[in-house]
Every structure is written in structure tokens, then in C-alpha cells.
Amino acid sequence: MLFGLVVVFPLHFTIQSAFKRRERALEYFSLFKGRLMALYYSINIAEDLTPEKKQEGTNLLKRVSDQVAQQLEAREGSYELTQRKLNEVYTFIQANLEELSKRNVIKMIRYMSDVTDSTTYLITSITHHRTIAGLRFYSIFFILVFPFLHAPILLSRLEGLVSIPVFYVLAGVVSILLVTLNNFQTMIEYPFDPKGVDNVKLKEFKLDV
What we know:
- This protein has 209 residues and is mainly α.
- The chain contains 6 helices and no strands.
- It has helices at residues 2-44, 51-73, 80-95, 102-128, 133-158, 164-189.
- Helix 1 (2-44) packs antiparallel against helix 5, helix 1 (2-44) runs parallel beside helix 6 (164-189) and helix 2 (51-73) runs antiparallel to helix 3.
- It starts with a helix and ends in a 20-residue tail after the last helix.
């Protein structure tokens, strides 16, 4: 009961929370790239836009994509930089209202709204708001304390049944497993840096056109 309350429960909760954040990040990244592609197609199907204007619009979208990936990789939580890139896209749309059809512009504004929603979550929410700090401290504290409680309990239950070296091995194995799980949770806590094997591959979500 003690093991479950002070070690297993907080570890399970923090790891589950980190995985949910990772999965939701993938959903928002898919929405982000999908809407950028929709904006790209909306710009390039406009018959009245010159090739130069189409290339300009494409470059602006690429800058948005690169900016988001760069901020997430560097753990830069300021949304202002991304907002500037989005404002440039909006300015481009506004400056070419005559060349873009009214129906096309309405769709593009809706796509812009989805891009803003997804980037706000990815940059602001995930970077600044992660697993509850108090629960993580609680988990780490009892992982460090538990071996000192675990060894005497093993000794009282198994004394005379197994040799003394086995107690050291059991206590060491349990400690290593708990610390490994805690390190695993720490690695997936922020799923955008290039350190972890299971982290989000940012390059796959860039606008590559």
C-alpha cells in the first residue's frame, strides 16, 4: 500500500500525463501542417496572382513553419516571434485581396485561425505549462526515500530465507527501476527537443514544398 501510494501512483500519473501531452502535440502538429498546406494551395491556385506573388506567399508560410520548429526545439516560449510571422501572412492576404477571390480569402482566414490555435498550444501551453511541479517533486522525493524503507521491510520478511547479498541486489534493482522510470518521464515531458528517441520529429512537420 505504501509503495502504491507514494511511488507507483505519482509515477503512473506523471508518465501518463507526459504521454497525453505528446499525443496531443502530434494532433496539433498535424493540424498545423495541414492548414499551412491548405494556405499554400489557396495561394497557388489563385489565377490572378503573379508567380512572384505566389512565391512570396510560399516563402512567408515556410518562415512560419521554420519559426515554430525553431522555437520548440530551443524551448523558446515567447509567442511574439511566431505572431510576427503570422502577421506577415495576414498582411500578404490583405494586400492581395483583389487577386484572391472573396471565397478563397474567407477560407484562408479560417485556415489562419486553425494555425493560430495550434501554434498557441504548441508554443505557449506545452512550453510553459507542464506536469504539476508539486507532484513531480513528491514523486522524486519518495523515490529517493523508498529504498531506506524497502530494505528493512525485506529484511524483516525474508531474514533467514535468502542471503544478505540478495537484499542489496533487490534494493538496488528496485531503486534503478524507479529512477529509470522517472528519467523516462523527464525525457518525454518536453517532446520537442532532439535528445529523446521518442520525441516529436520536428522536421517531418515543416512545410516542405
